[in-house]
Task: structure prediction
Amino acid sequence: MNEGGCLCGGVRFAYEGGATPIQFCHAKRCQRASGSAFQPEMAVAADGFRWLQGEDQVEIYEAPLLREPPALRRAFCRVCGSPVPVVREGQPWVALLAGSLDGDPERRGFRHIFLSQSAAWYEVPDDELKHYEERPPAAERLRWRKPEGG
Result:
């Protein structure tokens, strides 16, 4: 089981089971939401996710729709403002930021996306990860998929 939470400790969560690799999103809206050059995003199976405490402290901000559904949704602790997982009813996955986890998620980065919007003050590493100037193709979007036969 992996656990995580917000800066003040009021919101805590856990997940069991699989998780996607981590993608580094360099989009301007992700920079603004995180205050950083990119967001380390991953997804976990919704049926293995649960709030341990503080679910009532979770606030949701939905940014206006930019190009295609769904609108950008950010969840955060109303006390300290830290980002927390985004749970969408009816989705088989929960989105979270790797930095909100207590320990090693045993997943590593596999791509950089929206590099055309990279912060001028940050030099994107010339690494072996996939690089996309914009959004990855639809077939490669970060989504939790149940294993074959599962």
